[in-house]
Each structure stands twice: as C-alpha cells, then as structure tokens.
TrEMBL record:
Pfam families: GntR, UTRA
Record's compositionally biased regions (Basic and acidic residues): 12-24
UniProt KW RNA-binding keyword: no
Name recorded for this polypeptide: GntR family transcriptional regulator
Species of provenance: Saccharothrix lopnurensis
C-alpha cells in the first residue's frame, strides 16, 4: 500500500497489558470495537507492522487478531492493498419486490449491466421448468447487478419466448419484472425458490470482483404468471455483502403459504 491507505485509519483504545487474557484476544476486541463503532465500511486499518508497534505486540499476535475478524466478516483483505473494514451486508427479506426498488428503498443506487442476451436451446431441466418443447429455444439473459457501484450479484436466467417474444430488443438494464408487466401485460405472481451455498468459479468471481472460491449465496427461482412459467433464473450473490432474513413459525409447511422469492 502507499499514501493514505498505507497508514490506514488511526485506531484508539485501551492499551494491551500483560495478564491472564491473551494479547491477541485483547487486540481483537480493540479492532472489533473500531470496525463496528468507529470506522465507516471500506476504511483501511493500519498495517500489521504499525499495529505491532502501536500496541507493543508481535506481528504474529496482530495476524491472529486480524485473521479472526476477517473470518467473522468484520474485516476484509484486498491482495496488494491491505485490510479494510467490511462493507455492511444487504439484508433482504424474501418477498416479491424488484431488486431496483429494494435497493432504492435502502438508500442505495442500483445499476444493471447486461453481459449477454441471446436465443439458445436450454438444458432439459430448464426446458421442463418453462414447459418448452424439445430443442425449443428460449432467451438466455446474463446480467450483473450493482448497489452503490459495488458488484452484488450475477444473474443467469432463461425466459419463455412464448410469453416474452423479442425480449432481446428491450432495454434490459432496468427492472425486468416491471418491463415484463409494462411491455407484455404479464404480472409475475408466484415463484418457487431454492437456496444453497457455493464457491465462486473463476468467471463469476471476475464479474463480482472477488477471488475464485469466495463464498456465494445461490438462488434458483422459477417464476410464473397465472400458472404459466415465465422465468428460470439462477443468481449468485456475494456472501460478504448479502444475507437473507426469513420469518418462521411452527405451521405445517404443506398447509400454509410459501415464501416467494425476492424478484430482480
């Protein structure tokens, strides 16, 4: 690092003392309080050498304290640049709301980039989900979603051409669900969604500006309108910036309403 980033932010707090509590645990608490209460997200912290000098501990002690906070998600390392306070996660509750509207409601600026859009023959599982015939092409759309300029999600979706013909002729950088409603008179009213964790492959990692193997949350969603399938979308979200909140009760899952997906 160089310049301001090399020095990092000044960290104040109680001194580290000899005693029964390990020094790395004392330093970890100082850094945790600083990351949570004093520094804004994305702020650099001092280097290992500076922290070691400031608190009179070894660099091994600093490395242990910082490493634990990185694993907890409070700090993040950027290769060749240093260590920073992590950006706060976007907390999303599962319901039907566009990504664009959701980000704006949170005071974030949404943006969408179209990576590709073309008519292709989908794999059998997608063709079955969209109720398409053998070898019948569909629209395959890949988009990158950003919040305040930061890459948040990669979406790779398939769309039923019987419902949304000429989809590729539209502006696909806006809310797709609003476009489908306005241009085709189709209001998506139901979605089934499956969520799992996955390590970022090199192509997805490059789009999201994370290292290959970084943790991602993956959502596969099949959306329909009045029982007619329209969309089979898989989205990869950065695990360091995104989390999901759900309300749970003890009702029989077969008897009550299902959670539907956050729409993009």
């Amino acid at each position: 690092m160089a310049g301001r980033e090399a020095a990092g932010q000044e960290i104040t707090g109680r001194e580290i003392t000899d005693g029964p509590r390990p020094k790395h645990a004392q330093l970890r608490d100082i850094l945790r309080r600083t990351a949570e209460q004093e520094l804004p997200p994305g702020s650099p912290i001092p280097s290992e050498r500076d922290l070691a000098q400031r608190y009179g501990v070894s660099r091994i002690t600093v490395r242990a304290a910082v490493g634990q906070l990185v694993s907890e998600g409070l700090l993040t390392r950027a290769k060749g640049r240093g260590t920073f306070t992590a950006r706060r996660r976007v907390d999303v509750q599962l319901h039907l709301e566009s990504f664009t509207d959701d980000m704006r409601r949170r005071g974030l600026v949404p943006a969408t980039g179209v990576v590709s859009c073309a008519r292709e023959v989908p794999p059998p599982a997608v063709a079955g989900a969209l109720d398409l015939g053998p070898r019948e092409p569909a629209f395959r759309l890949v988009r990158l979603r950003r919040a305040d300029g930061v890459p948040l999600a990669v979406e790779r979706g398939w769309y039923n051409p019987r419902v949304v013909p000429d989809l590729d002729r539209h502006d696909l950088t806006t809310s797709l669900y609003a476009l489908i409603a306005d241009a085709y008179g189709v209001q998506l009213d139901h979605a089934g969604q499956t969520v799992w964790a996955e390590a970022a492959d090199p192509a997805t990692a490059k789009l999201l500006d994370v290292r290959a193997g970084a943790p991602l949350l993956v959502f596969r969603r099949v959306s329909s309108a009045q029982g007619r399938p329209v969309e089979d979308m898989t989205s990869w979200y950065r695990g360091d910036l995104y989390q999901v909140t759900m309300q749970l009760d003890r009702t029989d899952p077969g008897s009550g309403p299902h959670h539907s997906a956050t729409r993009r």
